[in-house]
C-alpha cells in the first residue's frame, strides 16, 4: 500500500525525472504488458475555431491507467518512454487508434483532422514517413486527416534531418505544427524557414493573459507575426470566456482548453460532434 501511494505521489506532485522511482521501473518494464492488456487509451480534446465556436479538429492525448499506480500523467511517462524504444510503441498505438477512429468520425465531418504528438526519436527515424504512409494506406485515409505536433526542442535535436522529414510528411499531405510554442529557443526567423502550418502557443503564456501584461504582448505579437508568415495560430490552455474573448480580439485562429472541453474519451466524441459542428 505504501509503495502504491508513494509512487502515485511522485507521479502527481513532482515534475522531476528521478531515474530510480517505481514509476520509471513501471514504465520501462510494464509498457508491453500495458499495451497488450489495454491499459493505454487515447482521449481527444476538441480544437475550436475562435471565429465560429465550432469544432475544427481534435488533439489525441494518450492515457495510461496502471493497475497498481492508477492513472499516470503522460507528461511523466512519455518523458521516461522517450529514453528508449517505448515511445515508438506508444506512438504506433496512438496513431493507429486515431486512424481507426477517424475512419468512423469522418462520416460525420468528412474533412475532420486529428493532431498527434510526435517525439524526437520517432520523427527523426528515416523510415517514419514511410511507416505513416503505410498506416494511412491500411486505413484508406488521406494524409490530410492527421496533423503532427512537434516541439521546438524536437527540431533542434537535428534541424537538417527534421526539415527533410517534415518535407516528406508534407508530400503525403500531413501538416506539421509547433507545439508549446514559446517555451523553446527557436526564433521566428528559423520557424519561417520550416514547412510548418501552425504555431500552438504554450499554455504558460495563455493561462494568465488577463492579468499579465507581458504575456499579453507575447501572445498578441506572436499571433501577428505568425499571420505575417502565413501560419495559423492555436492557443492552448484556455479555461474561461474572458481569455477566449481576448484571444479572439488578437485574431487567434483556434482555441484548445477546458473552457470548451477537457480531453474526451473516445465514446463521447460522436456526441460532441453532433452538438458542436
Ligand atoms: P501537449 O501536447 O501540450 O498537450 C496539451 C496538454 O494540456 C494536455 O495534457 C491537455 O490535457 C492539457 N490541457 C488542455 N487544455 C487545458 C486547460 O485548459 N487547462 C489545463 N490545465 N490543461 C489543459 P496531457 O494530456 O496531460 O498531456 C501532457 C503532455 O504529454 C502533452 O502536452 C504532450 O507533450 C505529452 N503527450 C500526451 N500524449 C502524447 C502522445 O501520444 N505522444 C507524445 N509523444 N506525447 C504525448
Ligand atoms: Mg500537443
Ligand atoms: Mg501543447
Ligand atoms: Mg503544452
TrEMBL record:
Transmembrane segments: none annotated. Residues 24-277 form the EAL domain. It comes from the Bacteria. The lineage of its organism: Bacteria, Pseudomonadati, Pseudomonadota, Gammaproteobacteria, Oceanospirillales. This is Diguanylate cyclase (GGDEF)-like protein.
